[in-house]
């Protein structure tokens, strides 16, 4: 059954009341780009009120192969405050539909995204700036499956259009393309998730797929997502992803019995590190080329991998 966020999505478009767990988290994410200009970005603001912190990050893949990353961790503001931190701000202009992203941060700019994982890799410090507007194609879509207790208690996603301009130093990056956003809250135990695979392909408002698979502690897997095809939206009931982030096939079926197959691979991967209690988790953000039948596109895939510290 289709389960969009309905009665409670207006209340869900801001910080949520915290639970008691020290790792209770509340995070907003946007990602997408411009396939014609070969430019893409992701950005996240995550609040951990019981630890008193807010993290803000933005990563930008430039068409010339460079990758810009800005990250800050600061003291968390009040629960009724704005979704903002570290020079980033996400403003709900029309909650559930239109958001403005504002960027004014200092970044490390690497020759390539993979250099994030290379100790001592050279980088240039440059300012980031700009504004983007996100406009949803559908109401926010709630995920009943594809989650575990270590990922989030609640999660919704929304595909949409992105437009605006970002700047990296003196480089101006106009964007006009597609993207998605999500909001998750509940316990977020980065080291407690065996793995996850998050991806999607956004063609137009009548044609898109959002898909994820998450490993469970007992060695199993849960999957979630939505398929919009020919203007008909339905939740996914089965999905699997074979291969690794550099080359994979994702196969899914919705509750109407319609199937979808995506093939592709990341062409530039930024390995982001999450450390806790001597353990290291990599959240690999990948600029990804995808194929869906005769359609091709540029998207972002996210692979969570547990590794040795």
UniProtKB/TrEMBL annotation:
<protein>
    <recommendedName>
        <fullName>AttH domain-containing protein</fullName>
    </recommendedName>
</protein>
<dbReference type="Pfam" id="PF23212">
    <property type="entry name" value="DUF7064"/>
</dbReference>
<dbReference type="InterPro" id="IPR055492">
    <property type="entry name" value="DUF7064"/>
</dbReference>
<dbReference type="InterPro" id="IPR055493">
    <property type="entry name" value="DUF7065"/>
</dbReference>
<feature type="domain" description="DUF7065">
    <location>
        <begin position="130"/>
        <end position="188"/>
    </location>
</feature>
<feature type="domain" description="DUF7064">
    <location>
        <begin position="189"/>
        <end position="304"/>
    </location>
</feature>
<dbReference type="Pfam" id="PF23213">
    <property type="entry name" value="DUF7065"/>
</dbReference>
